[in-house]
Write a structure and sequence with these properties.
Number of helices: 2
Order of helices and strands: EEEEEEEEEEEEEEEEHEEEH
Oligomer: single chain
Radius of gyration: 16 Å
Low-confidence stretches: none
Strand content: 35-45%
Length: about 220
């Protein structure tokens, strides 16, 4: 791709993948925002992506596909997707930081391919889920950087299980050594209000509260 230096910000993308008058999705392989290729200087920030649905696969919020590299995604809110809030197929040196990922149906974060280089950095994010899994895909070589994140499973938040290994093994590989498992204390997540209460442990972990009021159509 020749794309570079793009700024995608303050968008509200929602209810895609299914007809407005049908309960079941009809599409696959898509997201609230989709990228591919090397795109130095590209930033995806201050967006709100939710209610993205797919049939077989690919109902994601932010989707780094086909070699997406050198892209920063920060300060976004992603919730109620069928297949996860963030997915990277393959690429390198991307940064995913200070985002909220919530209530994915099947999982929250997916990495499809193990790579010899660093796929992405995942830091200062809040990952909040119900019955789904927090991570999915291929993590065997751990050529990623995870740290200072907040993880919470509704109704049983004391558990965070990396795929295919124990928490101790995950941390031995350098992952999430300064992250916490704690209720982020959203104001009203059941009403899609993912602002933080004043005593949220997420701020102590390094999360910077978001101004979500500007996402979407404006006068």
């Amino acid at each position: 791709t020749l794309a570079r230096g793009n700024v995608i910000e303050h968008n509200h993308v929602h209810h895609i993948g299914r007809p407005a008058d049908e309960p079941e999705p009809i599409l696959s392989d898509m997201a609230g925002i989709y990228t591919l290729g090397v795109q130095p200087g590209t930033v995806i920030r201050h967006n709100r992506f939710h209610d993205v649905a797919a049939t077989k696969y690919g109902g994601w919020g932010i989707y780094f596909d086909e070699g997406t590299s050198n892209v920063v995604a920060e300060n976004n809110v992603v919730y109620r997707t069928t297949h996860g809030g963030f997915h990277q197929h393959y690429g390198r040196d991307n940064v995913f930081r200070n985002n909220i990922i919530a209530l994915g149906r099947d999982y929250q974060v997916q990495r499809t391919r193990s790579e010899a280089h660093r796929s992405f950095t995942f830091e200062r994010n809040i990952v909040y889920w119900n019955s789904a899994e927090p991570l999915s895909g291929s993590w065997d070589n751990c050529n990623v950087a995870f740290d200072r994140n907040v993880y919470w499973k509704i109704g049983g938040g004391t558990e965070f299980k990396p795929p295919g290994m124990t928490v101790a093994q995950w941390r031995e590989k350098g992952m999430d050594r300064n992250s916490v498992v704690a209720d982020p204390k959203f104001v009203h997540p059941e009403q899609d209000d993912f602002n933080l209460q004043g005593d949220s442990p997420a701020t102590a972990a390094g999360f910077v509260p978001l101004d979500q009021s500007k996402a979407g159509p404006r006068p």
